[in-house]
Specification:
Blueprint (H helix, E strand, L loop, with lengths): L1 E5 H20 L5 H15 E4 L5 E3 L1 E4 L4 H8 L5 E2 L5 E2 L11 H26 L5 E7 L3 H17 L4 E8 L9 H15 L2 E6 H11 L10 H15 L3 E2 L8 H8 L7 E6 L8 H7 L2 E3 L4 E3 L1 H13 L8 E10 L4 E4 L2 E4 L25 H4 E6 L8 E9 L2 H17 L4 H5 L5 H20 L3
Parallel strand pairs: 1-4, 1-7, 3-5, 4-6, 7-8, 8-9, 9-11, 14-17
Antiparallel strand pairs: 2-3, 10-17, 11-18, 12-13, 14-18, 15-16
Helix pairs in contact: 1-2, 1-5, 1-8, 4-5, 5-6, 6-13, 6-15, 7-8, 13-15
Length: 453
């Protein structure tokens, strides 16, 4: 898999993600042979070659219209990995994309296209095992939204058989940039035509998780804490795990085939149990079944599955419905109970007993989708980041409608009054381009609404 990072947000997330990958590889609790195999597989997936100093080269291409953020990332010396200098695509003279999707797409896209393809082609020539792209970007400003969607479209044209996963971080709803709703709308409308699957992450939700589960902190450091949560979510679904039925790996192409059974439904999100246990264990015990071993608090599997189920159904009078879900569990059942004067594994706490996430009330009733296709379960005995038990669910469900509705409503409100339109029309955009984007995303909303009927 080759990572392509766009703009300030995408490059910050990418840098944090690779650091978390190294942290996970270096985690050593558990069986020595399984640790070695896991580390080898992770290294082969995310890195290619080593520098003169012995640091592994991240299998990534960095794209930005200004070097400020990239330079800051490069100054953060990592002892185990680094970026390949030839894979940094930027300019010394540019000052960004003016927070304007049209500027990034129409002007910067063609300007950067050849250089990005040269870097991508170089990485692909180093290894014949790259079968997919992981694209990371924000979509509030002009680079991630405009340049990013242009390059993703170009990658699709150049590599029609490779899977493309686009991970989009949406800005705070309260507004980071005046034109952000136009930029999000136009970006989504382009990306859903090119990407095989889109993972949507929202700053508002990531912030709430950081507050709630980050040791009950009242202050969240932006963007560091939010990026931390986002990267742990991504890592939890992208690190190696095996299908419990047929032992196949959770490679991107396989997951896309299960999560996106129809091209009208490409939006997914990642639900996880709390990523960091609160330090106040008494509060934790009120809402979770907590069992302890000698090294770390463990929330049992069944409590995790109930939490994930609650998240799937919450809102809209419990009318949310899933098209497809993939559960990924990591860790072993290490909780012990005394039986016949011997300590044995707690049989009631089984990671394979995930009935809570199979019940029909979670899923849309569609005649063309079988029960087998609606839910897949992958498991990895090796711990993630040394957590005893870690469950995550990547879900394709109707909850995305609430987010899309808000974006479309705000964008329509601005468009009706002609707000900021002149900034876009300077770069060859016409009213038909906006109306086409509105129509496309409203069509997506309509399709997801059908899941709730």
């Amino acid at each position: 898999m080759l990572t392509v990072q766009f703009g300030q947000c995408g490059n910050q997330i990418g840098g944090k993600l690779y650091s978390k990958i190294i942290e996970d590889i270096k985690s050593t609790r558990g069986n020595e042979s399984s640790n070695h195999e896991y580390a080898e597989n992770s290294t082969a997936k995310w890195f290619q070659g080593t520098s003169k100093s012995g640091s592994m080269y991240a299998r990534a291409v960095l794209v930005d219209t200004e070097k400020k953020v990239i330079n800051k990332i490069l100054k953060q010396k990592e002892d185990k990995w680094c970026y390949r200098a030839s894979n940094i695509v930027s300019t010394d003279y540019s000052s960004g994309s003016a927070n304007n999707w049209a500027y990034g797409f129409v002007k910067k896209g063609p300007e950067f296209e050849e250089s990005v393809h040269d870097a991508v082609r170089y990485e692909l020539e180093l290894s014949d095992t790259v079968d997919s792209f992981l694209c990371l970007s924000g979509c509030a400003g002009g680079t991630g939204s405009g340049l990013g969607s242009f390059i993703i479209q170009s990658l699709r044209d150049e590599y029609p058989k490779k899977s493309i996963l686009s991970t989009l971080l949406l800005p705070f709803g309260s507004g980071e940039i005046a034109t952000q709703n136009y930029n999000i709308l136009l970006s989504l409308a382009k990306i859903i035509d090119s990407a095989d699957m889109v993972v949507v992450m929202e700053n508002d939700k990531l912030h709430d998780e950081a507050v709630k589960f980050g040791n009950l902190k009242s202050h969240v450091s932006f963007p560091n804490d939010i990026n931390e949560v986002a990267c742990q979510k991504l890592l939890s679904v992208l690190q190696a795990a095996n299908d419990v039925d047929n032992n196949s790996l959770n490679d991107l192409e396989h997951m896309v085939s299960k999560l996106v059974p129809h091209p009208a439904y490409k939006f997914t999100s990642i639900e996880t149990v709390p990523l960091v246990l609160p330090s106040n264990t008494s509060l934790l015990e009120k809402s979770w079944s907590v069992q302890k071993d000698s090294s770390i608090n463990s929330i049992n599997w069944q409590a995790q599955f109930k939490y994930l189920r609650r998240n799937l159904l919450s809102g809209n009078l419990n009318q949310r419905r899933s098209l497809a879900n993939i559960l990924i569990t990591r860790g072993v059942n290490s909780d012990k109970v005394k039986k016949n004067n011997k300590l044995v594994c707690h049989q009631l706490d089984d990671p394979y007993n995930c009935d809570e996430l199979i019940k029909n009330d979670i899923y849309a009733q569609l005649h063309w989708l079988t029960d087998y296709d609606k839910f897949r379960h992958f498991h990895q005995n090796r711990r993630l980041l040394n957590y005893d038990k870690f469950s995550s669910l990547i879900t394709n469900n109707s909850a995305v409608n609430k987010t899309l509705d808000v974006i479309v409503s705000k964008a329509w409100n601005s468009y009706t009054y002609g707000a900021f339109l002149h900034q876009y029309k300077k770069f060859e955009m016409e009213d038909d381009d906006f109306l086409s984007a509105f129509s496309k995303i409203e069509g997506v909303i309509s399709s997801y609404n059908e899941l709730e009927r």
